[in-house]
Specification:
With 661 residues, this protein is of the alpha+beta class. The protein is 15% helix and 39% strand.
Length: 661
């Protein structure tokens, strides 16, 4: 596990790298032939542990197997042997060894968890989860990179790479082990192959000779909280002085610079650790990890509420539905209100797994394992999501990575969503998550353009009455092919559209004409079967219709949009956003569901029950604008969600799960 987690809490500030384990292996291998039998046995145990830690599981298995042939049965050897087998995906064999371990040490509550994890791991690995994971090669090194944080199209993370503030003393005279510093990289540079040193930036205003990491920002980016090591008190049993973890705070001052970091909480202590901060979207709740006294386990997740004077309340334990006898850490609260965290004691793949939970009647419940490929047989932690979307980043020490811990991206495979605005086609760029690249070809003159995103959006000017082909490729293979041709005049907007591989969504069709007083537009979508879908719209079309594979679509407007009275150089800031709300329950049927949307406590829209739990509404753009969405249904706990419009946003989808009372 990384610093700022179990290793730091148990062993203080000692932090090893792979090279040091490999050096130790040489010494222990030499000692195996020692004439001193006890020394040879001890070296065999240490050597097996080293192999297990660096991922040489077959070598570790062989040594543990030999060790267990002795008459003396030590529970720790059964445990380590079982963990090695499990890490090699030999789940049936691992179960037998875990069962032996439980017999020898029934008081260890982790035993049954490990045993259950063998069945869970095999089952989940056999399933198709629908997510894809990739290593962020631009960031990851042979050192440690973890705890990603997203803000303002930048990815922040903690790393022990060379160039950090100060190096620790080397244990073997070999490679230095550096302090952890916070770094960042612009999203637009993550997939760039050239290795430019200035791409990855040291956050020098915050970093110090101590460890820094696990950072989070307020929504406006003017405040930040992060984890930092401080000198702790002396351990009475071992006489060692162990470093503890504290959460520090900084903000942007009147000159635009970050203030000198200071302790964020009055309860920060040198007797216990407080770490891994995560702010709620409204900034009024902060979640974190701590091993303070009177918790449920070795580390628990706590939270504080911001008071009227701007200070944080005393810490409150989040409860034993989340916290166990083991380690719970690295909390992250998403924009939709889902709490993500890592645990080694909830049923999972075996070590730290990522879990999610929902707030029901003021209590966190419905804990679910997010499963592979995010979770693995290694430690998986520090997950963040990109807004309300189904993609983001996390960190893991899974094997076959570059270093001690690496950062990975993930994405649900969701359809591309196209928008047309006058002479511009645009859609979101998710290439750093899903690896899909796009090229557009003018079929008239055969000119090609590889699309490049700006601030996370692809935008390309297209000519009227010109056929285009857009090809999407993933890892060099064809992912999708989209054909389109559009034309718009003062009285008509016409679009022909066809896809050949995967369905897409058509989300926006805009024509900001100003020469008519017609308040509505009649829009017709016709597919190749002759099926027509008619809509009445205001100033643009946006209903997230699915464009199916191998059908020719004709989308036509027959009247002009509402007169907008715009001058040519005026920025249009009164668009509407199509918001689709999908309400569901995993185990009960929904009845009489209502969606109420408020702006400044004033009800602006009420939507009644729909047959499939889907609701469509249109909100004013006016970036940024905040709305409160209240969702209720008979027999279910009412859920309130904060929704804020984003720049260049024309549509969004909220998926909301309701839970029974």
């Amino acid at each position: 596990m990384p610093v700022f987690s179990q290793r730091n809490l148990e062993k203080g500030d000692r932090y090893f790298n792979i090279n040091q384990f490999e050096s130790a292996i040489k010494y222990y291998t030499m000692d195996l032939t020692s004439k001193n039998k006890k020394a040879a046995e001890k070296s065999a145990q240490k050597l097996a542990d080293c192999y297990r830690i660096i991922g040489e599981f077959e070598k570790a298995e062989e040594l543990y197997r030999k060790i267990l042939k002795r008459k003396k049965k030590d529970p720790i050897h059964y445990l380590n042997y079982a963990l090695s087998l499990k890490s090699s995906a030999k789940y049936a064999e691992a179960k037998l060894q875990f069962e032996e371990y439980i017999k020898l040490k029934p008081e260890d509550l982790m035993g049954p968890v490990y045993l259950q994890s063998c069945d869970s791991a095999q089952k989940w690995l056999d399933e198709t989860i629908g997510k894809e994971v990739k290593s962020i090669d631009k960031i990851n090194t042979e050192y440690s990179e973890f705890s990603p944080c997203i803000y303002n199209h930048k990815l922040y993370f903690s790393s022990s790479r060379p160039g950090s503030k100060q190096a620790l003393i080397s244990f073997d005279g070999g490679g230095e082990v550096h302090r952890l510093d916070i770094y960042n990289i612009d999203f637009s540079r993550i997939d760039v192959k050239e290795d430019i040193k200035t791409d990855i930036v040291n956050f020098k205003e915050i970093n110090s000779p101590k460890h820094e990491g696990a950072i989070c920002f307020s929504k406006d980016g003017k405040e930040l909280y992060f984890t930092k090591t401080v000198k702790g008190n002396r351990n009475e049993k071992t006489n060692d002085i162990l470093n503890t973890l504290q959460i520090f705070y900084s903000k942007i001052d009147s000159t635009g610079k970050w203030t000198e970091p200071k302790s964020a909480f009055s309860f920060n202590s040198t007797n216990y650790s407080v770490a891994h901060p995560s702010l709620s979207p409204d900034g009024n709740t902060i979640f974190f990890m701590s091993d303070m006294k009177n918790g449920f386990g070795k580390t628990d997740i706590y939270y504080c509420i911001k008071q009227t004077n701007g200070k944080w309340s005393p810490p409150r334990n989040i409860g034993n539905s989340i916290n166990t006898f083991g380690y719970e850490m690295f909390p992250f609260i998403s924009e939709s209100g889902i709490l993500y965290f890592s645990s080694n004691a909830h049923p999972g793949m075996g070590q730290l797994d990522v879990f999610e939970a929902s707030l029901v009647d003021g209590k966190w419940t419905n804990v679910k394992n997010v499963k592979p490929p995010i979770n693995s047989i290694g430690n998986d932690f520090g997950i963040v999501l990109d807004g309300l979307n189904h993609h983001g980043f996390f960190s893991s020490d899974r094997f076959n990575g570059k270093g001690l811990e690496d950062i990975y991206s993930f994405a649900d495979e969701q359809p591309i969503t196209l928008n047309f605005e006058n002479d511009t086609l645009y859609f979101r760029d998710k290439s750093i998550f899903d690896e899909v690249k796009y090229k557009i070809t003018n079929e008239k003159d055969k000119s090609e353009v590889e699309l490049l995103a700006v601030n996370g959006v692809f935008k390309v000017k297209v000519e009227k009455m010109t056929p285009y082909k857009m090809v999407a490729r993933k890892n060099g293979m064809l992912f999708n092919k989209i054909f389109f041709e559009y034309n718009h005049q003062q009285t008509i907007y016409d679009l022909k559209l066809k896809v050949t591989s995967k369905p897409i969504l058509l989300d926006g069709l805009f024509n900001f004409s100003k020469s008519t007083n017609d308040k509505e537009t009649n829009l017709t979508i016709t597919d190749s079967t002759g099926l027509e879908s008619k809509h009445q719209i205001r100033s643009f079309y946006s209903i997230c219709d699915t464009i199916k594979v191998n059908q020719n679509y004709q989308i036509t407007t027959k009247k002009l949009a509402e007169a907008l009275n715009l001058s040519d150089n005026k920025v249009f800031d009164d668009r509407t956003i199509h918001l689709k709300i999908k309400v569901f329950s995993s185990n009960l049927s929904l009845e009489n569901t209502a969606v109420v949307i408020k702006e400044n406590e004033k009800i602006i829209t009420t939507l009644n029950n729909s047959a499939n739990g889907e609701f469509n509404c249109y909100l004013k753009y006016n970036y940024p604008k905040k709305y409160t969405i209240e969702i209720s249904s008979d027999g279910f706990t009412t859920k309130n969600i904060e929704f804020e419009t984003r720049e260049n946003q024309y549509a969004d989808i909220l998926e909301v799960e309701l839970f029974g009372k």
